[in-house]
């Protein structure tokens, strides 16, 4: 049954990322229809995350109280309504409103899904399970790219986006029939998730600890890359590398396949390290930090590269490494909040999504700053993204120590000391 649950979570995140990423492939027709600048397009991308963050924290804590099955059912039903609502968009204000509401509806999905996965998979195999789950994001954002291009060409950007609402309603019906909240028995030792309200006096010492803050910053920097991929990478392929629409779709799919394979292999290796030493620093922190440094170096390499093939290879490696980091950070947050896993993971994912607010605006402004020199502008944006990853990866390796942190205020384990 745990594999059926993981399959549902996998397809749920595919729909999630398809919903949010298809607009990147529709960037040119949307910008042309509404006469948008790069700065305004950055605002459109940023608007998705204005309520996403708050909805993520609230939804994650809410799922601990009413259950993950009910929460996921409600969320995907809301997506259906919002995706069909795109047919009414007639200008920039309505486009922004649609993105804001979609962000609010999709905000809790990631943390709630990872909380659901944690109920079915033990800590020693959780990295692999979450990597597969995150792989669904790669499928939704990149592997579907050729299909997105064809849908936009044949249906228009409104019709293409609206058609995705059909997928979410199918998921809801099947989930209501087949989904389950918890396994009948659990064969690993881990604190039980509580359904009481989260107390600030208990949570705040953990939230403001060095380990937690660095984990949040790492999630922020890794997600900055994923924001670039979904919002600006199709534009980069077309306007800098000179790809056709079909080539953009194929290149995105190729990067997605390669990144997915890299992420699953790396996450599996991280799990093996954890099984061997039972320490979060070596298997999660050091591993994630190195992955983030590699991702940053790859993006810098792409700036200097004179070869499209080398650029695609650099994007593939960096995407795989960043996706791996996205699978590691929730596990650290679940360690810090073992009886509040929905809240802990939602806190991590919501903070990382601040990159979704900041990144599009900064990248759009940097591209516009270069004026008519689009190549230079896109390189400014890549340099910003790479710099964040390099700084975060180094700080994470040097100062994050989850094995020495209190697991949860009032809920210490045998190996913990106070923060």
Automatic annotation (TrEMBL):
List the subcellular locations: Cell membrane
One Pfam family for this entry, by name?
MFS_1
Source domain of life is Bacteria
Keywords from UniProt, A to Z, are: Membrane, Transmembrane, Transmembrane helix, Transport
PANTHER family per record: BLR1003 PROTEIN, SOLUTE CARRIER FAMILY 17
Q: How does it sit in the membrane?
A: Multi-pass membrane protein
Instruction: List membrane-spanning regions.
Output: 44-62, 74-98, 128-149, 161-178, 213-236, 248-269, 281-302, 309-330, 350-369, 381-399
Protein name, as recorded: MFS transporter
**Main localization of the protein described in the UniProt heading:** membrane
| Stretches assigned to the Major facilitator superfamily (MFS) profile domain | 5-405
Q: Where along the sequence do coiled-coil regions lie?
A: none
């Amino acid at each position: 049954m745990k594999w059926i649950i993981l399959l549902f979570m996998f397809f749920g995140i595919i729909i999630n990322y398809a919903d949010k990423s298809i607009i990147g492939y529709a960037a040119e027709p949307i910008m042309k229809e509404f006469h948008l600048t790069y700065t305004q397009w950055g605002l459109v991308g940023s608007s998705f995350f204005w309520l996403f963050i708050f909805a993520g924290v609230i939804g994650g804590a809410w799922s601990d109280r009413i259950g993950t099955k009910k929460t996921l059912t409600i969320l995907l039903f809301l997506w259906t309504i919002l995706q069909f609502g795109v047919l009414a968009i007639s200008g920039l204000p309505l486009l922004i409103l649609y993105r804001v509401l979609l962000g609010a509806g999709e905000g809790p999905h990631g943390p709630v899904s990872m909380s659901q996965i944690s109920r079915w998979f033990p800590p020693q195999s959780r990295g692999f399970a979450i990597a597969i789950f995150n792989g669904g994001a790669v499928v939704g954002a990149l592997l579907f790219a050729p299909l997105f291009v064809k849908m936009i060409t044949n249906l228009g950007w409104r019709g293409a986006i609206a058609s995705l609402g059909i997928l979410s309603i199918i998921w809801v019906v099947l989930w209501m029939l087949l989904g389950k909240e918890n396994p009948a028995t659990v064969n690993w030792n881990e604190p039980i998730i509580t359904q009481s309200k989260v107390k600030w006096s208990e949570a705040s010492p953990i939230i403001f600890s060095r380990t937690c803050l660095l984990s949040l910053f790492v999630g922020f920097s890794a997600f900055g890359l994923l924001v670039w991929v979904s919002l600006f990478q199709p534009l980069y392929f077309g306007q800098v590398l000179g790809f056709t629409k079909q080539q953009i779709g194929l290149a995105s799919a190729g990067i997605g396949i390669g990144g997915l394979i890299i992420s699953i292999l790396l996450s599996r290796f991280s799990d093996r390290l954890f099984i061997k030493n039972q320490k979060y620093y070596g298997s999660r922190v050091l591993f994630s930090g190195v992955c983030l440094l590699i991702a940053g170096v790859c993006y810098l390499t792409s700036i200097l590269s004179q070869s499209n093939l080398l650029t695609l290879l650099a994007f593939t490696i960096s995407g795989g490494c960043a996706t791996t980091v996205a699978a590691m950070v929730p596990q650290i947050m679940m360690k810090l909040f073992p009886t509040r896993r929905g809240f802990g993971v939602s806190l991590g994912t919501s903070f990382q999504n601040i990159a979704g607010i900041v990144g599009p605006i900064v990248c759009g402004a940097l591209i516009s700053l270069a004026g008519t020199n689009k190549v230079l502008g896109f390189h400014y944006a890549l340099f910003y993204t790479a710099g964040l990853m390099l700084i975060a990866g180094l700080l994470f390796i040097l100062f994050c120590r989850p094995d020495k942190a209190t697991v949860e205020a009032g809920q210490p384990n045998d190996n913990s000391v106070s923060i």
